[in-house]
Amino acid sequence: MHLNKFKSLEQHLPGKTYISGDAISKDDTKVFAAVPSKPEAEFPNAARWYDTVAATLASRFPGKAVGDVDEDDDDLDLYGDETEEDKKAADERAASKTSSKKKGSGKSSVLLDVKPWDDGTDMKKLEEAVRSVQMEGLTWGASKLVPVGYGIKKLQIMLTIVDDLVFVDSLIEEHQTEEPINEYAQSCDIVAFNKI
């Protein structure tokens, strides 16, 4: 099922460390998210790339991802270098998926900044309070603490939403004033919002 992704990745990577350029980029992050597991030994370039990106992402986002992974992403174009046949096949798959799914049930990736009240705020409890918000269509991802200044750190946390089910603005407005979040969080801001 995932062999096509691995083959495509293997063919793209000879002589390269990253998908595009000399450093990790959003292309690597996007492809990494689409690859369900480390490629087998028969794909050495892809396996080396996977280990490199995994180590880099783990250092930037030391938290553990929480939630379900969407395995239904076989039509993802990893590199944008499709042939006409590939495009036609992808269009047919998209048309069949559209007819079987609700119209407009896209997903978005969101990066939030959650700022504590002061340097005495328990950041572990702050993260637990944020992750305690659960609803259909919301999946929490990796997180990290980022220094702001004067010994204060903010929580940066990733989440994935189903656009038809979760509205980020109302999610923030409804929950940041509720217990236990308002006990630890002063404010919550959207840093990045990308359609998947």
TrEMBL record:
Positions of region (Disordered): 64-108
GO cellular component: cytosol; eukaryotic translation elongation factor 1 complex
Residues in coiled coil: none
Biased composition (Acidic residues): 68-84
Skewed-composition ranges (Basic and acidic residues): 85-95
Keyword line: Elongation factor, Protein biosynthesis
Residues of the Translation elongation factor EF1B beta/delta subunit guanine nucleotide exchange domain: 107-196
One GO molecular-function entry: translation elongation factor activity
Homology family: Belongs to the EF-1-beta/EF-1-delta family.
Role description: EF-1-beta and EF-1-beta' stimulate the exchange of GDP bound to EF-1-alpha to GTP.
Oligomer status and interactors: EF-1 is composed of 4 subunits: alpha, beta (1B-alpha=beta'), delta (1B-beta), and gamma (1B-gamma).
Protein name: Translation elongation factor EF1B beta/delta subunit guanine nucleotide exchange domain-containing protein
The organism of origin for this protein: Oryza punctata
